Amino acid sequence: MLKAAICTIGDEILIGQVLDTNSQNISKALGDIGIKTETMLSVGDDNGKIVSGIASLLHSHNIVIITGGLGPTKDDITKKALAEITGATGWHIDERQEKIITDILDKRGIAHTSNNIGQALVPDNCKVILNKCGMAPITVYRPGGDRFPNHPVLYSLPGVPYEATGALPDIMQDIRNHFSLSDIYHKTLVTFGIPESIMSDMISDWEAALPEDMKLAYLPDPAIGLRLRLSIYGGKREEEQARIDDEFDKLRPVLGNAVYGSGNDNLETVIGNMLRTASMTVSAAESCTGGRISELFTSVPGCSDYYLGSVTSYANSVKRDILGVRQETLDVFGAVSEECVKEMAAGVRRITGSDFSVATSGIAGPGGGSKDKPVGTVWIGIASPDRTTAVKYVFSGDRKRNIVSFASNALNRLRLEIENYISQLRN
């Protein structure tokens, strides 16, 4: 099996200033075409460390993909390091990339400086894949000879995630053109509401009975839930797809309505599809989540088909004066209560005219908790055409993680309520 390595370049990654999403996206793209990423390396903006680090990866891997260290400023050091590693003897301007650069500069009204145009300057021993999303070209090197007798392939991508991700289809196609690839098949079942430790016990018999060539991975994410991924390396894709489908068909009855999707599904897309299919709508009233639920809904293209809007009612006065929460409710039970979120949900449903609504009120922290209502407490209210319900959860994360958990659990409760209502209509 081919071995791949990913190298990110830049001090900003090592000091935690920038989140490395490039490695994740590249690794996923490689996995989709049957190549396993064995090594990930990050190095700072130091020529010696870049040269030694990349050279070491080239000796032990078939494919090395690097990102970062490219641009119109003095930290454009990657190309020089790559020229040194691969034995380039000169440089030239790639006219196709130069045309893209000048077009971008003209569109933005920026002068054609030597620094900007210089991004099209590349070592004479590389192949250029055009960067259609930015200025710095993608370069490909195939070093060999005595230094690299394994004949690896080296790809250099810009560090900007939008540009790096945009280059991946061309990179993967180039890999397909130059390597004989064995098929790999992954399929993911997406669940919510069952913690990983409990899930492991629930499906232990099913997992133990899996064929030896089928590998299971648990992929928890507080915003999405717990994804269960089955993988088979090698074989024929159509046959492996059918085998994995059969195994997941055995698992679905065990997990029941905890399963809500597959692949790249998330709660907001699944809810949107259900509402669109049923020609129904939803709204939100948020306190502790501060607009995150609205952000999740509106992250889905076409959400205007079913999402009507929200009220971010952080202050009690907004809960009372806009959503219609009774002052007596606030005085007797408090804002973080079953009674309050039910009235919030009913209020925003009435204001917007939506079929469903979801409301949240809680204590994200770090302060504001009490013995009866500790930090991490949230009440979630759901209003549907025939009833209004509420449920309480208590989480133990920091403020940011609590807000993510509050919002995702609110969407999951909404999903279950919509599923239940639509099921009753069909029956």
Strand neighbour order, sheet with most strands: 2-1-3-8-7-6
> Main beta sheet: strand number and arrangement?
6 strands, mixed
Structural class: alpha/beta
Residue stretches low in confidence (pLDDT < 50, at least 5 long) are none
How would you describe this protein?
Pfam families: CinA, CinA_KH, MoCF_biosynth. This is CinA-like protein. Residues 5-178 form the MoaB/Mog domain. With 427 residues, this protein is an alpha/beta fold. 42% of the residues lie in helices and 23% in strands. It contains 16 helices and 17 strands. The chain has helices spanning 11-14, 22-32, 47-60, 78-86, 95-108, 114-117, 161-178, 196-202, 204-208, 237-255, 267-278, 292-298, 316-321, 327-332, 338-352, 399-426, and strands at residues 3-9, 36-43, 63-67, 91-93, 121-123, 127-129, 138-141, 153-157, 184-191, 215-221, 225-233, 259-262, 282-286, 307-312, 356-362, 377-383, 388-394. The strands form 4 sheets. It has a 6-stranded mixed β-sheet, sandwiched between helices. Helix 3 (47-60) crosses helix 4. The longest helix has 28 residues, at 399-426. The model has no long low-confidence stretch (mean pLDDT 93).
List keywords for this structure.
427 residues, alpha/beta, six-stranded mixed sheet, five-stranded mixed sheet, globular
List the topology elements.
Blueprint: E1 3-9, H1 11-14, H2 22-32, E2 36-43, H3 47-60, E3 63-67, H4 78-86, E4 91-93, H5 95-108, H6 114-117, E5 121-123, E6 127-129, E7 138-141, E8 153-157, H7 161-178, E9 184-191, H8 196-202, H9 204-208, E10 215-221, E11 225-233, H10 237-255, E12 259-262, H11 267-278, E13 282-286, H12 292-298, E14 307-312, H13 316-321, H14 327-332, H15 338-352, E15 356-362, E16 377-383, E17 388-394, H16 399-426
Parallel strand pairs: 1-2, 1-3, 3-8, 13-14, 13-15
Antiparallel strand pairs: 4-5, 6-7, 7-8, 9-11, 9-12, 10-11, 15-16, 16-17
Helix pairs in contact: 2-7, 3-4, 11-16
